[in-house]
Amino acid sequence: MSRVILQVMISGRVQGVGYRAWVESQAVACGLEGWVRNRRDGSVEALFAGVPNHVADMVALCRHGPPSSRVDNVTSETANVDELNLRRAGEAFSVLPTV
């Protein structure tokens, strides 16, 4: 089975509206591994690893976000498997502190 790892940057009104928690719940429901965190510039950064069509579906979901958010832009790029090491031990998907 093939696997893809994408690092995604989401900008807009995405902090303070439950966006990280929403990303976590959606990613877990899609069976993905990875993490999500706020950035000091007001954007949200996420890493998704899993079956290519599930990762693509998650990126599409990020373009809409939860109802209280306003997503202006989503960009993604292929990431290295080492990026998964940022997760908390024992968690398939982690919500990380702001960077």
Description:
- This protein is of the alpha+beta class and 99 residues long.
- It is built from two helices and five strands, in the order βαββαββ.
- It has helices at 19-29, 52-62; strands at 4-13, 33-38, 44-50, 70-78, 93-96.
- A five-stranded mixed β-sheet has the order 4-1-3-2-5, with helices on one face.
Characteristic key phrases:
alpha+beta; five-stranded mixed β-sheet; 2 helices
SSE topology sketch:
Blueprint: E1 4-13, H1 19-29, E2 33-38, E3 44-50, H2 52-62, E4 70-78, E5 93-96
Parallel strand pairs: 2-5
Antiparallel strand pairs: 1-3, 1-4, 2-3
Question: What would you say about this model in short?
Answer:
The protein has 99 residues and is an alpha+beta fold. The chain has helices at residues 19-29, 52-62, and strands spanning 4-13, 33-38, 44-50, 70-78, 93-96.
Radius of gyration: 12 Å
Pattern of helices and strands: EHEEHEE
Strand content: 35-45%
Q: Give me the number of helical elements.
A: 2
Count the beta strands: 5
On the 0 to 100 scale, the average pLDDT is 95
Oligomer: single chain
Approximate shape: globular
The class by helix and strand makeup works out as alpha+beta
Biggest β-sheet strands, sense, barrel:
5 strands, mixed
Which stretches of 5+ consecutive residues score pLDDT under 50? none
Helix content: 10-25%
Main β-sheet, spatial strand arrangement: 4-1-3-2-5
The end-to-end distance, rounded to whole angstroms, is 33 Å
